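can u do me a favor
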């Protein structure tokens, strides 16, 4: 069962993605709105992580810098995903086989890099936290990712 805070995080994530995917009326306004949404998302997610992990003071001191670095790297991959979603939305109904192949390959490359990134951060998180908390943190990341995938699946139509 999702908490109210977890639901808020997921709705914010979807808003960020949809705002990137929609055509921009004003690039400057979109950039400002997106920055606000991204900051809210990162803050809400961090609060959810803090609540879920219940870190001691020494754990928090070691964990948060690693967490921030990991999130920064994940955000870069998210930007690539959003770029693909935006292209898909702009070309929807007139996507060529060549476009479809490129979009599919880019999506799989992003997913592969997400796994590689996550694996590379395990030792860093293991230095900061007891193993059970590391596991709980990655469970939470996976739950959020799964919810996001479900939301995207619900709003992004199948290719024509």
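np, heres the sequence
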């Amino acid at each position: 069962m999702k908490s109210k805070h977890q639901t808020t995080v997921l709705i914010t994530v979807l808003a960020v993605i949809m705002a990137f995917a929609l055509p921009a009326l004003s690039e400057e306004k979109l950039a400002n709105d997106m920055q606000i949404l991204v900051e809210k998302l990162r803050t809400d997610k961090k609060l959810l992580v803090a609540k879920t992990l219940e870190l001691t003071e020494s754990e928090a001191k070691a964990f948060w810098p690693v967490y921030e670095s990991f999130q920064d790297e994940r955000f870069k991959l998210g930007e690539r995903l959003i770029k693909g979603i935006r292209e898909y939305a702009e070309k929807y109904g007139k996507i060529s086989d060549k476009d479809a192949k490129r979009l599919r390959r880019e999506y799989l490359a992003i997913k592969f890099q997400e796994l590689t990134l996550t694996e590379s951060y395990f030792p860093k998180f293991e230095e900061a936290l007891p193993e059970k908390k590391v596991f709980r943190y990655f469970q939470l990341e996976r739950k959020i990712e799964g919810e996001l995938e479900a939301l995207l699946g619900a709003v992004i139509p199948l290719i024509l």
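The helical segments are 4-21, 27-53, 57-91, 97-128, 131-155. hope that helps!!
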